[in-house]
Amino acid sequence: MSKTTLLSPAAVIFKVYPDAFWNSSNAITKVVYIDNADGDTRNRMITHVLQRLAQHLTREHDKVELHFQEQQRRRNLQQLQLSTTTSAADNGEQDFDFSEIFGDLPLMEEDLDTTIDATQFPPVRASHISFILVNEQAKVRTKLYPRTFHCKYCGHFLALNPARPPLNLTCPCCRHDQLIQEPIVFGCARCANVIELFPKGERSNSTPTNRRTINIDNFLGTPPPCPECSSGHIHLEKHNTNNLVSWQWKCNSCKQYLENVQELCLKCYLPKENSDDKTDITFMSAFPASASNALHPLVDVQMFLKDEPLEPATFPTAAIESAQNWADYFELKPLANITNSILDLDKIEVIENACISNAYLLNRVRVVTTIYGYQAGDIMKHPRSPVQLPDRLARFFRDPEGLTDYQCFGMINEGSALVIELDKSKIIERLSQLYPYITTSYNDLLQTEREELGIIPLRELLQPISLQHNQFPLISALHALEHAILINAHRQIGNEVLGSILFPQAGVILLYERESIGRGGVVQLINRGQGLVKLILAATDHVNGCAQGCFDGCPSCSYINDMYCQYHQEDFNNRWLPPNILLSRTGGRSILKS
Fold it and tell me: What are the alphabetically sorted keywords of the record (predicted)?
């Protein structure tokens, strides 16, 4: 096991968290855990953070528990059917075959239950979570992963024992080439289960076409033996291609063992309920452990002034405090009434024409960015069993010492922020020209959309927006506007340290600094107002069209990194929403451009 210390807190939060893969200097490794000598951090601000995280964890935990309760219910039902069928067979009736590939275990009669307990799972409390601060004292502990090594010359394959590494990596089979780490692993898009590449063992008694899974830990340091003969061991035959579809396992001695390289996830499968159904099982996708999008981190962002949550209602007061002792303070509204302003009236009109009523800076904003779990990344989706985002199950970080049920890892940055206040009445005026059916006020329309969000199925929300059937014209336009401003803010300052949050109820977009950047963040972006004009013009051009020719928003024009698409659930009827949905580039254009 090794230690990794030269990593920024942001790299740990977004890339090098527990169970994530990391490319070290000599091999691919897997993060085991992160520790800090200070242990669990507790203060007034962190208590606010943990209360929000408890809500996230409760939602994701309930989803996981429901799935595995359903799995257990079906397993119990399967055992009952097996028991009934066996009894019927004693009377001369037909017996049904149940595959051993799914690892069904015999249950005691009193344990059999074919119902799901509908009672609410106990909610996760803030006291159940420990907050590990990621700073210069934090240590990232890793281990070699995957442990599988392969000889390109002869196909020799084995899993090394990291506790007892070999003296050298010369292939013990051909003595001609070196063993190199085989980076391919298998991942399940539903439960994010990741396993190492390894052959199967002996044939199943009930289904001879299937082979039993081998526990890789039982063969560390030795090649997997061939179950068909007593003299050979299994090689990995790649047939001179990186296309895994063509790879095969074969015995180096006999011809009886020849298997394609393929894996099914036996962790989250759902057994069939009757003979006419199919088992709900996920094909695991093969990918290199070094892939950047193998896992999708679940990240929460919260902002504070001192130790209190930063909310739109407190922005004006915070701005007054910032203006008193901060030389870089900027506010747009007073400039419109100053004859010798640093901004010409025509430039102020550019900003106001974009439905912006005011813009100002805040100082000493504390941003707490926390990772509390992860899901499977898109690279794990297999074409034979694609799992959509709503069906993906989260994995959480457990406390290795058992002091709490969960761990989260967070970084704290104190920096500046840009508040952009929008003109609600002008937005409704613009949107009503695009959507003639809009006849209500901003607040009434937003309330209607929030109520609709509370009842519409998530799968419908994932469908592309149609201009004629947009149920959420206000939210989707504001969301696209937020993304356009953030994307062009990144381009303007030359890095991606800025984040954004939309507050639709208040009609506010907030740009904040996720990492320490000094005056190179929002201060440089605004540049005494000149940069704000440049930003609005760039955002207006951005929503004016798409290089891919999309209808109303796509990854090319409107999407941002999923990890950076943050929102307050309170503003969306406490509804969890996936990132990069409800985006209308056309709506955003109507707001920015009259």
Answer: Plasmid
Per residue in 25-76, pLDDT (tens digit) is 789 999 999 999 899 999 999 999 999 999 999 999 999 999 999 999 988 8
Q: Any residues with CB less than 8 A from the CB of 143 and at least 6 apart, and which? A: 1, 2, 29, 30, 32, 162
Helix ranges (DSSP H) in 254-340:
315-324
Rounded CA-CA distance 534/321 in Å is 27
CB 410 within 8 A of CB 132: yes
Mean pLDDT of 275-300: 89
Nearest-CA neighbor of 66 among 5, 12, 121? 121
d(CA 56, CA 77): 32
Bridging pattern class, strands 406-422 and 129-133: parallel
**Token representation of residue 210:** 């299937």
Structure token digits, residue 309: 């949550």
* C-alpha closest to that of 541 among 589, 499, 474: 589
Residue 55, C-beta contacts closer than 8 angstroms, at least 6 positions apart: 569
CB 500 within 8 A of CB 579: no
Tokens of 179: 């063993």
Beta strand residue intervals within 108-164, DSSP E: 129-133, 139-144, 148-151, 157-159
CB atoms near residue 380 (< 10 Å): 30
Which neighbouring-strand residues pair with 286?
186
User: How confident is the prediction for the chain on average, in pLDDT?
Assistant: 87
pTM: 0.86
- Taking CB atoms within 8 Å and a gap of at least 24, the contacts of 163-169 are 164/221, 166/221
Looking up tokens 């020209």, which residue turns up? 433
pLDDT in tens, 405-436: 999 999 999 999 999 999 999 999 999 999 99
178 phi/psi in degrees, rounded to 5: -95, 145
Using H for helix, E for strand and C for coil, what is the string for 27-56?
CEEEEEEEECCCCECCCHHHHHHHHHHHHH
DSSP string of 497-559, one letter each residue: -EEEEEETTTTEEEEEESS--GGGTHHHHHGGGHHHHHHHHHHHHHTT--TT--SS--TTTT-
**DSSP β-bridge partners for residue 140:** 4, 34
Of 362, 288, 320, 352, nearest in space to 510 by CA: 362
What are the phi and psi torsion angles at 57 (to 5°)? -65, -35
Q: Which residue bears the tokens 């998530």?
A: 458
Q: What angle do CA 196, 187, 103 make, to 5 degrees?
A: 75
Q: Is the dihedral of CA 55, 57, 61, 64 positive or negative?
A: positive
